[in-house]
Amino acid sequence: MTEHKIQVGDADVEFDQDGFMLEPGLWNDAVARAIGREEDIDEMSEDHWSIVNFIREYWKEHDLAPPVRLICQQCEVSVRQIYKLFTAGPARGACRVAGLPKPDGCV
Amino acid sequence: MSEKEQDESTAARVSDPAEVARMAREALRSAARGLAAYHFDACVRCGLCGESCHIYKTDPVPENLPGAKAAKVASFFRRYHTALGRIAPFLVGARALTPAALDELVEAAYGRCTACGRCGLNCSVGTDVGAIMRAGRNVLAAAGKVPPNLQAVVDNQLETGNQMAIPPEELRDTAAWISDDLRLEMGDDDAKVHVDEPGKRVVYLVNPREVKFFPLSLMAAAGVFHAAGERWTMSSRFYDVTNYGLYSGDDPAAAAITKQAVEEAERLGADEIVLSECGHGFRSFRWEGPNWLGEKYAVPMRSVLELLLEYVREGRIRVDPAKNPARVTLHDPCNLVRWGGIVEPQREILRRVTSDFVEMVPNREQNFCCGGGGGMLSMSEYGDRRVASGEVKAEQIRATGAKIVAAPCHNCADQLLDLNKKYRLGVEIKAVVELVYEALVL
Question: Which helix (H) or strand (E) covers residue B404, if one does?
């Protein structure tokens, strides 16, 4: 069984078996960087942060992951670019880095 | 959805244990009607099924043996539908549908089986193990024992018309947004994603994942349809090709989900419904739906792969395989291929639109499940097993040396993305229609 825990600073951050945070309230920039490294993002760029922060804010307001259309339009990235920034895609990639719970359905 | 269907699909959530047991027994009786009783009593315990199962191969413990999983369902059948089971259950290993027995079946039926059907195909006496496991899910759904994350997806479909609860205005906005990019890429002001246009030849159903998170396949389909001069549209209300009632085992819910999409296509006046690349969605709509509804459809339906093959064969689109020079292999989604019978169209298409297509081994109806089937992707509680069991598929892919895996199923695609990361495969995962779009000669 894989250990679903990473240490960030003094805190242990725990994940479900899909790699999504069990307690999204514990999310902060350092946690985002740590999950990002698991996604092969060595250094979070300005585009990464803009996407992650937008997803985070949208989720806080709507309790839902935003559709990729809004992410791309709000953060001014093209639809093809987002899969280069987050190779696992907007759901299992970007939403995970943003500390959201796993979205419903085929993702 | 009618009131009666609403009642049936939510009836399972009653709390009276006697009523739960009665409904579970009724579901078992109903499932046994559709499945020759022979299947419940045929296992000779040879154990050959083990090697055919990706879950057993990656974790060979007795409870992962397909025959052992099916035996749990069969023990209930024996208790209520055989003479000895009724009189002396302890003699024949017959078990009553008690709450504890049902809870035990949850793990076997949802957590240790993707109902991929490969074991049944390789069974020495021809037992349809996949169908037995779905009968087990029928029983659990009737007893209100569907894992909550899986049930949430069914509820989304029933309440909002699609599994991700995307509002109709978001579908229209996304269609407009993708259309802007499509016009730029094709250099053609008339290319677009058509929505809510009555009287078109084709109504196209897609996986909501394509709308919410992965629109490149929808954009590619729109581009190919445009190049072929197709008359097509989507509905902004009922466009969901998936049916999580198949996974959960809730046939009344599955019927209601089928009905809403079929009636919408009728309302729009379509000549045919075309189903996007989705394994369980194809199986549900094309084969299971009429049985769930108890009637034939008024509008015929087929897979987009069959339509794409028609386009390339008839010269309705021009393609150049040199535009896809990288090595491509093909994943066979269990519900599309082994259960659904769509085996050769995707192969002929890939031979025509890519220049280095290699098969993984084994393939076609003998393919291995990727590990993400049967609703596994929605149940995080089984995530570790899902990814571990995908090792079989990961090694198949690695052996081909391919750079691109064509996956004609969005559910499989997500699992393959996870496997790519976990097993360091270094591949891209694409829908077949994306490769067709990239090969277009305009």
Answer: strand B404-406
Return the residue of A nearest to B412 by Cα: A106
Task: Judge: B212–A67 Cβ closer than 8 Å, yes or no.
Answer: yes
* Mutate which: B213, B236, B414, vs A, most A CBs within 10 A: B213
DSSP B41: G
Q: What is the CATH number of domain B161-311?
A: 3.40.50
Beta-carbon separation of B181 and A18 below 8 A: no
- The whole-angstrom distance between A9's CA and the closest CA on chain B is 25
Torsion of CA B21, B22, B24, B30, to 10 degrees: 160
User: Do residue A64 and residue B418 have CB atoms under 8 angstroms apart?
Assistant: no
Which residues of chain B are within 8 Å of residue A16 when distances are taken between CB atoms?
Answer: 380-381, 383
| Alpha carbon distance B388, A29 (integer Å) | 30
Four-residue CA torsion sign, B306, B312, B313, B316: positive
CATH class, B319-439 region: alpha beta
Q: Are B439 and B324 in contact (CB under 8 A)?
A: yes
The two three-digit tokens of residue B336, written as one number: 């599309």
| Residue A102 resides in a domain | no
Tens digit of each residue's pLDDT, chain B (442 residues): 444 444 444 444 567 878 888 888 998 888 887 777 788 888 999 999 999 999 999 999 999 999 999 999 999 999 998 899 999 999 999 999 998 999 999 999 999 999 999 999 999 999 999 999 999 999 999 999 999 999 999 999 999 999 999 999 999 999 999 999 999 999 999 999 999 999 999 999 999 999 999 999 999 999 999 999 999 999 999 999 999 999 999 999 999 999 999 999 999 999 999 999 999 999 999 999 999 999 999 999 999 999 999 999 999 999 999 999 999 999 999 999 999 999 999 999 999 999 999 999 999 999 999 999 999 999 999 999 999 999 999 999 999 999 999 999 999 999 999 999 999 999 999 999 999 999 999 9
Could B152 and A104 be called an inter-chain contact, meaning their C-beta atoms sit closer than 8 Å? yes
Domain ranges (residues) in chain B: 3-145, 161-311, 319-439
Partner-chain residue, chosen from B165, B166, B214, that has the shortest CB–CB distance to A89 = B214
Residue A40 lies in a domain: yes
User: Do residue B380 and residue A20 have CB atoms under 8 angstroms apart?
Assistant: yes
Examine residue A70 and state whether it is found in any structural domain, yes or no: yes
Note whether B161-311 and B319-439 share their fold: yes
Of the partner residues A68, A73, A78, the one whose CB lies closest to the CB of residue B213: A68
Which amino acid makes up residue A28? N
ipTM: 0.94
- Decide if A105 is inside a domain: no
Predicted model pTM: 0.94
Using CB atoms, pick whichever of A39, A79, A104 lies closest to residue B156. A104
What are the chain A neighbours of B209 within 8 Å (beta carbons)? 105-107
Range of the domain at A35: 5-97
Number of domains in chain A: 1
> What is the domain-level CATH number for residue A21?
1.10.10.370
Nearest to B356 by CA among B331, B336, B332, B330: B330
